[in-house]
């Protein structure tokens, strides 16, 4: 209960004051809890934000997977569903997110932000499963160099941060441009990661090499 109380009070403080609390001591005093009780749950204010961002992610997954058709989706469609749903969750919390975003190092897709640590760990677990599924369904090609394949989750995390940054700055009605960007970005990613003429060319070259005349 103390953990949820601290997190909710922190969100309300950010929304009301527009900045982080002055200190853990002052924040704890306002909550009428001992400072030690705060540190039993969190080590810092950024850690609270990290858990909040992870919460947005978990809400997104729950909402997306609760759709009856989700299990029938291709991996490409699951990723699209994730991003569309994620943006809807973000919309419901935009005021807090804008304030949290102000404290990020920019550009977000090139910097490490402690506020996104827990979200990133959970996202990688999720996307790794989808990448494995996509390999099985041949939506993603298994490249001969493992170093390339291992970077696929990094690609999707980068897109996640790019989408966040785009949405933050999107001034279109109902954030319509963000929806368009999600569609084009995800489809481009799967087009690049799927089988391409270069893969066919590589297969041909490998065949000719193994069947060359000696």
TrEMBL record:
<dbReference type="InterPro" id="IPR036271">
    <property type="entry name" value="Tet_transcr_reg_TetR-rel_C_sf"/>
</dbReference>
<feature type="domain" description="Tetracyclin repressor-like C-terminal">
    <location>
        <begin position="78"/>
        <end position="208"/>
    </location>
</feature>
<dbReference type="Pfam" id="PF17931">
    <property type="entry name" value="TetR_C_23"/>
</dbReference>
<protein>
    <submittedName>
        <fullName>TetR/AcrR family transcriptional regulator</fullName>
    </submittedName>
</protein>
<dbReference type="InterPro" id="IPR041673">
    <property type="entry name" value="TetR_C_23"/>
</dbReference>
């Amino acid at each position: 209960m103390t953990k949820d109380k601290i997190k909710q009070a922190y969100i309300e403080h950010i929304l009301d004051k527009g900045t982080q609390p002055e200190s853990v001591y002052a924040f704890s005093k306002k909550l009428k809890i001992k400072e030690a009780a705060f540190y039993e749950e969190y080590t810092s204010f950024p850690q609270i934000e990290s858990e909040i961002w992870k919460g947005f992610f978990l809400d997104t997954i729950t909402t997306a997977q609760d759709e009856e058709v989700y299990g029938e989706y291709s991996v490409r469609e699951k990723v699209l569903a994730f991003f569309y749903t994620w943006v809807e969750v973000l919309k419901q919390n935009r005021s807090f997110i804008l304030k949290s975003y102000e404290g990020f190092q920019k550009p977000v897709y090139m910097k490490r932000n402690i506020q996104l640590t827990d979200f990133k760990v959970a996202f990688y677990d999720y996307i790794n499963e989808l990448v494995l599924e996509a390999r099985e369904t041949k939506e993603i090609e298994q490249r001969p160099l493992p170093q390339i394949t291992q970077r696929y989750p990094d690609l999707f995390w980068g897109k996640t941060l790019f989408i966040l940054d785009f949405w933050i700055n999107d001034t279109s009605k109902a954030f319509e441009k963000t929806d368009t960007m999600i569609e084009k970005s995800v489809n481009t990613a799967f087009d690049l990661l799927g089988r391409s003429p270069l893969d066919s060319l590589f297969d041909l070259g490998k065949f000719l090499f193994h069947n060359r005349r000696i």
